């Protein structure tokens, strides 16, 4: 993959290698979160631009895949926020993905995916880690660098918000 108009300083090869190694995983993540193939592709492209610009950080992180997932998550959040500004109708339901993580409750995950566009960024991060990645509160707290009670509070708010939006009992 060549970037036109740029001197080849190894960046093109780095980008191609990153895409070969992680593109499928990151694309699957963006499609799961956005439930719209075109928006997912846009978010994935945005994420790879950010990953390449921050490639020095990528070499220093403990878990590069988790770091890239967080970049994709933020790009997906930006897409959802822009989509929310453009239209207010709900997204089509995205039926069960075959790639559920162990410990992820299907109904909770689907409910979280239906309301992601309504959440704040901190709530979005917690919802994705809990209901898509299947992390427990301690793991989420460690990943985000916040306390476990903060995670409990955000999860409670997310469940209440979902119940209000979906007309269910929390």
UniProtKB/TrEMBL annotation:
Residues 110-161 form the RNA polymerase sigma factor 70 region 4 type domain. It comes from the Bacteria. Gene3D superfamilies: 1.10.1740.10, Homeodomain-like (1.10.10.60). InterPro entries: RNA_pol_sigma-70-like (IPR039425), RNA_pol_sigma-70_dom (IPR014284), RNA_pol_sigma70_r2 (IPR007627), RNA_pol_sigma70_r4_t2 (IPR013249), RNA_pol_sigma_r2 (IPR013325), RNA_pol_sigma_r3/r4-like (IPR013324). Keywords: DNA-binding, Sigma factor, Transcription, Transcription regulation. Residues 18-84 form the RNA polymerase sigma-70 region domain. PANTHER family: RNA POLYMERASE ECF-TYPE SIGMA FACTO, RNA POLYMERASE SIGMA FACTOR HI_1459-RELATED. Belongs to the sigma-70 factor family. ECF subfamily. This is RNA polymerase sigma factor.
């Amino acid at each position: 993959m060549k970037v036109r108009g740029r001197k080849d300083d190894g960046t093109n090869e780095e980008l191609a290698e990153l895409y070969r190694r992680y593109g499928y995983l990151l694309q699957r993540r963006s499609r799961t979160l956005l439930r719209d193939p075109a928006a997912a592709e846009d978010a994935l492209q945005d994420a790879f631009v950010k990953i390449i610009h921050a490639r020095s950080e990528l070499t220093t992180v403990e878990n590069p895949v988790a770091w890239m997932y967080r970049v994709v998550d933020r790009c997906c959040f930006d897409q959802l926020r822009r989509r929310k500004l453009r239209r207010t109708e709900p997204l089509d339901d995205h039926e069960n993905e075959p790639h559920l993580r162990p410990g992820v409750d299907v109904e909770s995950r689907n409910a979280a995916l239906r309301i992601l566009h309504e959440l704040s960024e901190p709530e979005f991060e917690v919802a994705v880690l809990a209901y898509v990645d299947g992390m427990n509160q301690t793991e989420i707290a460690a990943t985000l660098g916040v306390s476990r009670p903060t995670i409990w509070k955000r999860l409670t708010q997310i469940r209440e918000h979902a119940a209000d939006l979906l007309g269910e009992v929390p």
